[in-house]
Amino acid sequence: MEAKSIGVTAAKQVGELGIFRARRFIRAQLWQPLPSSQQRLHRLHRSRANEYLRGMPFEDDYELPLEPEGFEEFEDLEEDAQRPTLAPASTLLMNAGLARSLEGQIIAVTEAETGYGRSIALFLATRGATVVLLSNNSEAAAGLASHIENQGGTAIPIKADLSSPADYAAAQHKVLELYGHLSGVVHMADKTSPSQFDFLSMSEWAELFSANVRSSLSVLQNLRRQLPHTWLILVGSATEWHLHLHVVRGALEALTKGASLEKMRVNLLIPNRTSGGEEHDSELCELISALASPRLAHIGGNIIEVKMPPAPRLQDADLMGDVIPENLL
User: Fold this and answer.
1) Which domain range does residue 28 map to?
2) Do 47 and 130 belong together in one domain?
3) Is the same domain home to 45 and 127?
4) Is pLDDT above 80 for 236?
């Protein structure tokens, strides 16, 4: 495992085990028996990984303690791994000061009119980013843009059907005409299917594959052609109960890892539930904001499962009165 590929995993370990054990985690992950001819390179990788964690800009209450004399750095961490989680990864990143203002960044969010797309767009706008709302529902996107503007943010809606490669290419061209650059793209590749695998029609499979995989490939291809240094975050499906959804996730994971081999900054986030509205999606939004930071420009090729807090449930009284919270619509 390369040093740069374990950065976020190490950050999670800081929240779960404490920073001292997180450093041990990094070393244990990089340790393996090597021939003597490779030991020098191996020690270099270990050193870089440790320096990565040591160089993380923690606030005053995250002080790096020195290792005690005689410490065994490759100690079995199985016992430590059973410790309860004290802080989720995204909260840790925020507390560590990795998520700074996104002022000056132009960030496109697909499917921004609903679900996680809406929550992410609203959150990024509060961090100072100019948010480009890409949606096939132009009316809903325009309404969200007005809402963001009324809250003091900056947003612009652009109509685009992400299942059409030509539509995304045209939208990207328009962004470059307006702003001259595009800092990053958050692409919602989270369309699901209620059908059981046994009864999945070919037309439904084609639609599912196009909405999640083909659209992701199209975004990545256009970025590669024109904006190879623009980052891409894919948000995958929160449910994997059916075989065909496992196939979709496998394709997205392969695309993410393959892009890192091509020196492109792509990460895949998998939340463990569907959107609960902007008030309840902050874990995912904060993690995306942190990954958008230039401080984490070296983080790519990661598949990160994001543990979200439980979404609120509708009360029986609300259901009887047909009163549904706006953020759950």
Assistant:
1) 3-87
2) no
3) no
4) yes
Cα–Cα distance between 190 and 174 in angstroms, integer?
25
Q: Are 51 and 43 in contact (CB under 8 A)?
A: no
Q: What is the CATH number of the domain that holds 165?
A: 3.40.50.720
DSSP letter for 5, please.
G
Which residues does 109 contact at the CB level (< 8 Å), separation at least 6? Answer: 117, 120, 121, 124, 131, 132, 133, 134, 185, 186, 188
Residues 51-64, mean pLDDT to the nearest whole number: 42
DSSP bridge partners of 189: 236
Residue 184, SS3 per DSSP: strand
Asked if residues 186 and 109 have their Cβ atoms less than 8 Å apart, the reply is: yes
| CA–CA distance, 59 with 32 (Å, rounded to integer) | 33
Tell me the C-alpha distance between 67 and 64, whole Å. 9
Determine which of 17-26, 165-174, 195-204 has the lowest per-residue pLDDT on average.
17-26
35 lies in the same domain as 157: no
> Phi, psi (5° rounding) for residue 275?
-60, 140
The stretch 278-300 carries a mean pLDDT of 91
Token code pair at residue 176: 């470059």
Same domain, 138 and 27: no
Q: Is the dihedral of CA 27, 30, 34, 37 positive or negative?
A: negative
Number of structural domains found in the chain:
2
Amino acid identity for residue 43 in this structure: R
Look at residue 62 in the predicted model and tell me its pLDDT. Answer: 36
* pTM > 0.85: no
The pLDDT score that the predictor gives to residue 315 is 52
pLDDT at residue 188 is higher than 90? yes
Enumerate helices (H) and strands (E) in the chain, giving the number of each. Answer: 13, 7
Looking at the domain assignment, is residue 226 inside a domain? yes
Closest CA to 90 of 189, 233, 245, 230: 233
Same domain for 109 and 52 = no
